[in-house]
Amino acid sequence: MQTRFTERQLADPEIAASEQILRKCVHCGFCIATCPTYVLLGDELDSPRGRIYLIKDMLENDRPATAEVVRHVDRCLSCLACMTTCPSGVHYQHLIDHARVHIERTYQRPLLERWLRAALGCVLPYPNRVRAALAVAALARPFAPLLPRSLRAMLDLARRRRPVEASASSPRLTPVAKRARVALLEGCVQTVIAPEINAATIRLLERAGVEVVVVGGCCGALVHHLGQEPRAHALAASIVERLHTELTGQGLDAIVANASGCGTHAKDFGYLFRNDPRLAAKAAAVSAKARDITEALATIGLPPRAAGVPQLAVAYHSACSMQHGQKVDAEPRRLLAAAGFEVREIAEGHLCCGSAGTYNVLQPEIAARLRERKLANVSRTHAAVVATGNVGCITQLAAGDGPPVVHTVELLDWATGGPPPPALQSGGAMATDGREPRADR
Ligand code: SF4
Ligand code: SF4
Known about the structure:
alpha/beta
């Protein structure tokens, strides 16, 4: 694609990077068919190619964002299915990120929208604030039918979680040095609404002979997708510094994320800080060690299987940030199969479930349509449980009518000696003895 940026514009490294991305696009349109918003809405401006044209026009002409550009960019899930499809290697992720920051700087949203986005940015990265917000929302439970489904799902998840032993829910360091040493990104919202995921991850890694250092704090991914650049950079910078200290201190074999949205972001720290002389090298070193938990386990190896765990039929839902953002697709399936589960494929697996960070709060109608479409495909698998590697997808899918949804590591932990995932106990996939599946095997 030809571009017409001036020398002055290209002196800005963000513009220079976007120009390089734009020049790679050859207008072929292959990306359109796999874009969930185009599939649902049928408007070229809600496709990757359409958005690329809008962003090019906005940046090239140095224009403030218009309501039209904002509408179509906001509808983008950042699912990155277009990057998987694109034959020319267009790095849409960095282009849409740039567009979101430009919108945030140049466009004044309606007041309510501004408040909602500001509140999400102020609350979500901080577990104590999430906890407080959920407590307030719980008081409003009688009015729950009036709340968006995604918020109701978060409440349900928080309510049904089983008490997790203190040492498992907020561990800092396991005592024995073993086969490998990894840092686990503790995360933000997940630690409040589904602490069982970190607990299962730690048990599983320790059982596999790995020393786990838990590094707390938000990586900034959620606010990054809101275009809130200063806060996103501050959060990411803080976690880069702490991870780098671990890396250069006692050393790390891997930096492990069990929320694929965070993993994708951690792998991008090097790009994010490429122009920051203080952090560029540290961020690149951190990104080079970042792994999804299933990538790490594929290298380390699963602990031996425990006796008596039912061989449930599992529909594996590959989160977009996992399959498109990190290109991690085979490992979770292989691990689940090796752990004794029967892995079933969900049709239209490339399409997003509508979670996409805060998308299901900000674009609830499109998100709900994508959830229903995903759950209809899930139901055709006749699986007893859905497994996925991202808490956002768990929340999104659990808000609909379908089988229980759990994190992949919860099943792997269970299969190798851990407790059954709480969602299987409360969701009815197992009988009360904790061992018998409800549906197909
Ligand atoms: S990121 Fe997803 S929603 Fe956005 S343009 Fe690409 S395929 Fe479409
Ligand atoms: S597939 Fe790639 S090159 Fe083709 S239109 Fe889409 S982004 Fe451009």
